[in-house]
Amino acid sequence: MFKFIKGHLETITGIEIYPMISLLIFFIFFVVLFYWVITAKKDYIKEVSNIPLDHQNETIS
Predict the structure, then answer these.
(1) What is the pTM of this model?
(2) Which helix H or strand E contains 61, and what residues bound it?
(3) 14 partner at 20 to 30 Å CA-CA among 32, 40, 49, 61?
Protein backbone atom coordinates (compact mmCIF):
# COMPACT_ATOMS: atom_id res chain seq x y z
CA MET A 1 0.00 0.00 0.00
CA PHE A 2 2.81 2.40 0.81
CA LYS A 3 4.26 1.83 -2.66
CA PHE A 4 1.15 3.35 -4.18
CA ILE A 5 1.24 6.36 -1.85
CA LYS A 6 4.96 6.90 -2.37
CA GLY A 7 4.61 6.58 -6.13
CA HIS A 8 1.76 9.07 -6.18
CA LEU A 9 3.58 11.57 -3.95
CA GLU A 10 6.70 11.42 -6.12
CA THR A 11 4.71 12.75 -9.06
CA ILE A 12 3.71 15.95 -7.21
CA THR A 13 6.10 18.81 -7.90
CA GLY A 14 7.34 20.72 -4.88
CA ILE A 15 6.26 18.04 -2.39
CA GLU A 16 9.72 17.88 -0.80
CA ILE A 17 9.13 21.18 1.03
CA TYR A 18 6.32 19.83 3.25
CA PRO A 19 8.47 17.59 5.49
CA MET A 20 10.81 20.52 6.09
CA ILE A 21 7.90 22.83 6.94
CA SER A 22 6.41 20.32 9.37
CA LEU A 23 9.79 19.79 11.07
CA LEU A 24 10.20 23.55 11.38
CA ILE A 25 6.71 23.96 12.91
CA PHE A 26 7.38 21.07 15.30
CA PHE A 27 10.75 22.51 16.35
CA ILE A 28 9.44 26.08 16.82
CA PHE A 29 6.46 24.87 18.86
CA PHE A 30 8.63 22.93 21.31
CA VAL A 31 11.23 25.69 21.58
CA VAL A 32 8.47 28.19 22.47
CA LEU A 33 6.93 25.70 24.90
CA PHE A 34 10.31 25.08 26.54
CA TYR A 35 10.90 28.85 26.83
CA TRP A 36 7.46 29.33 28.41
CA VAL A 37 8.10 26.54 30.94
CA ILE A 38 11.47 27.99 31.92
CA THR A 39 10.17 31.55 32.29
CA ALA A 40 6.82 30.74 33.94
CA LYS A 41 6.40 32.12 37.43
CA LYS A 42 6.47 29.47 40.13
CA ASP A 43 3.39 30.94 41.84
CA TYR A 44 1.39 30.58 38.63
CA ILE A 45 2.52 26.96 38.20
CA LYS A 46 1.54 26.16 41.80
CA GLU A 47 -1.87 27.84 41.40
CA VAL A 48 -2.64 26.04 38.14
CA SER A 49 -1.50 22.68 39.49
CA ASN A 50 -3.94 23.00 42.41
CA ILE A 51 -6.99 23.74 40.23
CA PRO A 52 -8.16 20.08 40.02
CA LEU A 53 -7.84 19.69 43.79
CA ASP A 54 -9.69 22.93 44.51
CA HIS A 55 -12.53 21.98 42.17
CA GLN A 56 -12.86 18.56 43.80
CA ASN A 57 -13.11 20.12 47.28
CA GLU A 58 -15.86 22.52 46.12
CA THR A 59 -18.06 19.73 44.75
CA ILE A 60 -17.72 17.57 47.86
CA SER A 61 -18.55 20.33 50.37
Answers:
(1) 0.58
(2) none
(3) 32
35 CB burial (10 A radius; 0-12, 13-18, 19+): exposed
CA distance 54 to 46: 12
Q: Any residues with CB less than 8 A from the CB of 9 and at least 6 apart, and which?
A: 15
The count of structural domains within the chain is 1
The CA distance from 39 to 61, in Å, is 36
Could you tell me the residue range of the domain that residue 36 belongs to?
A: 2-60
For 37-53, what is each residue's pLDDT tens digit?
A: 999 999 988 888 888 88
